Amino acid sequence: MVRSPGKRRRRVRGLAVVCALTAALAAPSAYAAQPPQSHAELTVTGRETQPVFSRADAVYQQVDIRTEADSDGDGTRDTVRMRILRPRETDTAGLKVATIVEASPYWAGGNDVPNHGVDLDEDGLPAKRQQGAGKPGLTGPAVAYSGYYDNYFLPRGYAVAQVDSLGTGGSTGCPTSGGRNETLGAKAAIDWLNGRAKGWDLDGRPVEAGWSTGNAAMMGISYNGTLPTAVASTGVEGLKAIVPISGISSWYDYYRANGGVVAPGTFQGEDTDVLAKYVYSRADREVCKPVLAALERDQDRVTGDWSPYWAERDYLKDVRKIKAGVFVVHGLNDWNVKTKNAGQLWEALKKNHVPRKLWLHQAGHTNPMPLRMEEWLRQVHHWFDHYLYGIGNGITKEPQVDVEQADFSWRQQRDWPAPGTRDTTLRLRADGSLGRSPGPATVQSLTDAGRTVPAEQLVTSPDAANPNRLAYTTGPLDRDVRLNGVPEVDVRSSLSGTSPYVTALLVDYGKDTRATSGTVTDTTQQVCYGEGVPGLPGETGCAYRTRHATQSADFKIVTRGWLDARNRDSYARQSKVVEGREYRLRWDLQPQDYVFKAGHRLGLVLISTDYDYTLRYPAGTTMTVRAGVGSVTLPTAPATR
To answer: How far is CA 165 from the centre of its chain?
Structure first.
């Protein structure tokens, strides 16, 4: 979810939008209420549905839907509550519509929950957890129909629906941070829209979705963008399209990395139990306590190993079951839900020939809609029209991938990584350089200081001696180099001390103004993209554009990656580390699409503890690296600015 300015909690906000009306966006006067019809139908002009239905006159409906799960163990199947807005004509004129569903654990707000302590006092052994301040990394507000789905899509002949995830709001059951029950909970909404699940109104009367075509889409950001992938991976009939924005494809890769306990960005110490406790907002606040205790036990913050617990929360293994068109969206500066979650989902979709589309933008954990509003609405609108209404609008024949570049222009290409991408291997040399040839084998060392010193301080001044890091750089680049994919590090290394972590940081050295993860609202540009509801606060159908927040600096950490050396052979099982013995250590960094400009230097910095991400063992571990043998492999594509 989007984080509110000045607050540590991520929130879904009303989306910003634009002033000057464009040909791609209808003016508010185009949304006039339609006269009564004996039989209403969609209006399709120019190969897209048109805004002919009234948002202000929409029918509001609440339904409790029976799921296939009994996650609170009370002997009764869990239910999820769905709140629906649909065109009035679905009641008065026989109109049948498709539904855009956003399932979330956040509609009812959350609780104040401390994160786990990460400063450990023992030598890689289980340490007593210290409670510290912090909020879950995936959050959202309890605001009905925030955003733009109802204002834009309902007038075009769609129902829109919010679903309380299990254990939250009006639903029963228990939150489990990606557990199978949460998938079944959100899936029940799709089943009810297709007549396969039972539902009741809030007075207990049975109710069916006679107005539904049975076709549905799921869409959302963060946790709300994770549930669409989870549900689609069941192969449920009727789910025709999903748009996972900054979503998780494997929860292991949200809270772990290569055997290590690794936090989501800015939420050091968070884990699945913390998040579940935060969203636990159902009326009964006692029934789920045993489930929450089991989460804390089974997530295993001691070893960080892959286990059946994480396999349950891995949607990639079931990508072959997906029957929906998948529109993946992710920020290249998102360190909350890191880019690996999008990259590995994209590769799995490709391998299994699932219809797909990809947007990569320069912001962080946010919705790209207000950054590129007209084109965003056009593509998502056509995606839904095509898959939910069968309209042949050509969206599947357009380039599959849109990538925002460093100058905030957009490039379209037919795949990602870009066609023509090739691996380039650079050797770590004893003189601190990176080059194609290896150079003499020399053992170099660093002393871990990451318990107290952030990586951003350790990468500065790469040519100066620093005992707490090893830095290797190229000379000034004679041309642009476009990183396009997953970098990999391969070193011969030893550890002596308490920390099992090794961290690699890929750095762009050179004075420049670059995008950060943030965005800035431009209050001079407001656009009315949809129909508002007079007198209803927040329902204007208008919003402000946003632009990227930037920072001028001498360097930027482009991507990073972590390994627990005890998991050098398998992230499912630890192997003993003998202090001082060299091992071959290989690990991946987060996927990235980034251009190192001509004249800049490309650098690789190695440290042990990463202050903002890994567990923090006592300082002082000695880490050695055999220069002349180690390397970093970069997937590079032809660079064009």
So the answer is: 18
Indicate left, alpha or beta for 592 from its phi (over 0: left) and psi (-120 to 50: alpha): beta
Name the residue with higher pLDDT: 145 or 489: 489
Unique residue bearing structure tokens 């053992």: 443
Cβ 259 vs Cβ 574: under 8 Å? yes
Q: Nearest-CA neighbor of 48 among 365, 377, 356, 481?
A: 377
Strands (E) located in 56-211 = 59-66, 79-86, 97-104, 115-116, 131-132, 158-164, 199-200
pLDDT, one tens digit per residue, over 524-568 is: 999 999 999 888 888 899 989 999 999 999 999 999 999 999 999
pLDDT band for 130, please (50, 70, 90 cuts).
Answer: very low
pLDDT of 123: 65
Q: Are 529 and 18 in contact (CB under 8 A)?
A: yes
Our answer to whether residue 365 is catalytic in this structure is yes
Nearest to 573 by CA among 303, 256, 329, 223: 303
C-alpha 428 chain-centroid distance: 33
Chain centre to alpha carbon of residue 28: 33
Amino acid at 266: T
Kindly report, residue by residue over 585-596, the tens digit of the pLDDT.
999 999 999 999
What's 35's DSSP letter? P
Query: Number of C-alpha atoms within 13 angstroms, CB side, residue 406?
Result: 20
User: Is 222 a catalytic site residue?
Assistant: yes
Given the residues 64, 164, 334, 593, select the one marked as catalytic. Answer: 334
Residue 3 pLDDT > 70, yes or no?
no
E-strand stretches of 87-120: 97-104, 115-116
CA distance 636 to 484: 5
Is 608 known to be catalytic? no
At 80 the pLDDT is: 98
Question: 222, 246, 281, 499: which is the annotated catalytic residue?
Answer: 222
Contact call for residues 425 and 631 (beta carbons, < 8 A): yes
Q: Which of 116, 330, 365, 381 is catalytic?
A: 365
- The set of residues, in sequence order, having a beta carbon less than 8 Å from that of 496 and lying 6+ positions away, is 579, 580, 621, 622
Per DSSP, what are the bridge partners of residue 509? Answer: 555, 601
Please give the Cα distance from 106 to 165 (Å, whole number): 8
CA distance 433 to 450: 23
pLDDT at 38: 63
The predicted model gives 179-190 an average pLDDT of 98
Over 80: is that where the pLDDT of 420 sits? yes
Q: How far apart are CA 106 and CA 12, in angstroms?
A: 9
How far is it, in rounded angstroms, from Cα 548 to Cα 518?
6
pTM above 0.85, yes or no: yes
Confidence of residue 8 (pLDDT cuts 50, 70, 90): very low
Nearest Cα to Cα of residue 497 among 623, 586, 379, 610: 623
